[in-house]
Structures are given as C-alpha cells and as structure tokens.
Amino acid sequence: MPTNVTPEYKKAEEAYRKAREPRERLDCLREMLRTIPKHKGTDHLQADIKTRIKQLTEELAGPKKGGRRSGPSHVVRPEGAAQLCLVGPPNAGKSSLHARLTGSHSDIGPYPYTTHLPVPGMLPFFIIGMPRSGSTLLEQMLSCHSKIEGASELPVMTSLAKELREEAGTEDVAAYAEVLASKSSVELRLQYGEN
Fold it and tell me: In whole angstroms, what is the distance from residue 48 CA to residue 11 CA?
C-alpha cells in the first residue's frame, strides 16, 4: 500500500541515514515519526520506527538493571571498508601488531591479558596502479567513497613502474608485488606519496 510520505518525512529519513551517533539517530527517528502521515498505508512503517526508537532509547539508557552479567557490553559500529578482529593466545603480540599497523595507543605489556577491551584503529592503505579507463567496478567504487582521495592514477605512476622494474630486475609484474611488500608503508608514502 502506498505511504505518500511528505517532503519533511523524506528529509528526516535522509538525515537518519546520514546520522552516525545514537543520540542523533534517535532525534531523526522521532522527527520521522512526528512527520509521517497517519493512515492505514503507514501502519507498518510507524511500527518499525517505534521499534527503532525503543531500541535506541534502551541502548542510550545503558545496561538494564537485573541479574549478573558476564562482562561489559561492547558495541563496535560498522565503519570503514572492512572490519578485522585479531584473535590469538595471550602474549602473542596482537596488541603490538595492532598498535604498529594502526598507530593506536593500545595497552602493551610483558604479561598476559594486558588488553581488556576492544581497541578501535584505522589501518591506512593506498592503492597503486588504478586502471586508466575509469570503467572498472573497483575504480568506480573507490572514487565514490568519501574517505578516498585521488582515486585516479598517480602522477608518478610511470616513474614508479620504471623503478619497480629496475628493483625487481624482471618484466614480470608479480615480482613488482614482492618489491612493494618488502617496503614499509611509511617508506612507500614518503617515496611515492604527494607532499
């Protein structure tokens, strides 16, 4: 059944989709519920909005009072291109690897169970050698992502390919990847990144 929603509702729904913080999302949901037309065609939509409002209100209110819990609840919001979780035995170097890759300040110690809570971090990466045509799905996806700058070919791409060919000592493209893998991300950024 058609809902025939108003422009105010559409505006509130767009704000809800863009909102990242729970408090902001809750305000947008309340605005959506306020502006939605009240008729038979929107009954299910109203119920869905009310359910979301209830869930967000409970999430913002904190944990429920009640029986013992096994530990603190952790919410990891889905953001970025991917999410990874490092799993392994105690003192295996998970926190050291995490701190080294992401630059985060996680607790690192010579004793087991140093890190008690999840520690978020952003892994910087860059892609070398985008295709020139601009018609590949990968390039289209990367160029429309808000956190990726300069998804077109780097201006130093020809000199980069020449240097990789000289360092690899072969025309085999697979050897280029080995040369790149042997360098650190900081070294690559300093050598090939824009200043």
Answer: 18
Q: What is the pTM of this model?
A: 0.36
- The predicted-structure confidence for 42-75, as pLDDT tens digits, reads as follows 889 999 999 999 999 988 887 666 656 665 566 6
How far from the centroid of its chain's Cα atoms is residue 3's Cα?
A: 33
pLDDT at 6: 87
Give me the residue label for tokens 């009240």: 38
In this structure, how many other beta carbons lie within 10 angstroms of the beta carbon of residue 133? Answer: 7
DSSP string, 50-101: HHHHHHHHHHHH-SPSSS--SS--------SS--------TTSSHHHHHHHH
Task: Quickly list DSSP for 130-183.
Answer: --SSS-SHHHHHHHT-TT----S--TTHHHHHHHHHHHHTSS-HHHHHHHHHTS
